Amino acid sequence: MRNKQFLMILVILFVSVIVVTACAGVPTDEGVTPGPDSGGFNENMDEEDAYPEPEESEPKDAYPEPAETVERNELGYPLPVEPGGGRIEPYPTQEHQYAPQDGDSDMVRGVSYIDVVTVDLLESDPVQVNLNLIGNLPTPCHEIRVIVYDVEEDGTIPVRVYTLQDPDAMCIQVLEPFEISLSLGEFTDGDYSVVINGEQAVDFRID
């Protein structure tokens, strides 16, 4: 009988130890105060400390203006680019009535329709060469402009031909024929090729 009572007491004690151990391992919220690094809010913290204002940063331009990399002449027109990346300056002594003029930047640029291109070799020393152009302007109100650039090392003579029109002008929409002649300059012996608006136009040779 005594042995049974003793065993019952041991069982009760064993069960009690298990229950106490289990209860001690369960965390409770009572009396727990978040530490300074816990990210929580306690009674000693101000609302501004708990929720700081975001730092203001200066707005950045999402689309900055590209740097100007195009070289332009005295009238504001871009200079053509050589295949090697250099620039071709206008022929320094080239002056003619179809060259760009002051006030051209206020006009609207248009195309020109060139039908015939020829050159005349004058009997002079050194030889002077004239360029002849025959074609049509878009309208009678358009004015023709011609830019002649320096001769390149391979004998190419770049020429740019275009037209301009007053944007406020009222003009009949019909083609206007034109025929002009201008000097390309003086040349020494060699083979030359006139390229107009990027297309080969006429070749000539001076012996």
Short description:
The protein is of the alpha+beta class and 207 residues long. The chain has two helices and eight strands; from the N terminus they run ααββββββββ.
What order do the helices and strands come in, and which of them pair?
Elements lengths: L1 H23 L22 H4 L57 E3 L2 E9 L5 E11 L5 E6 L7 E10 L10 E12 L2 E7 L2 E8 L1
Parallel strand pairs: 5-7
Antiparallel strand pairs: 1-5, 2-3, 3-6, 4-5, 7-8
What do these coordinates show?
With 207 residues, the protein is an alpha+beta fold. It has a domain at 104-206. Helix content is 13%, strand content 32%. It has two helices and eight strands; from the N terminus they run H-H-E-E-E-E-E-E-E-E. It has helices at 2-24, 47-50; strands spanning 108-110, 113-121, 127-137, 143-148, 156-165, 176-187, 190-196, 199-206. The longest helix has 23 residues, at 2-24. Residues 66-70 and 77-93 have low confidence and may be disordered.
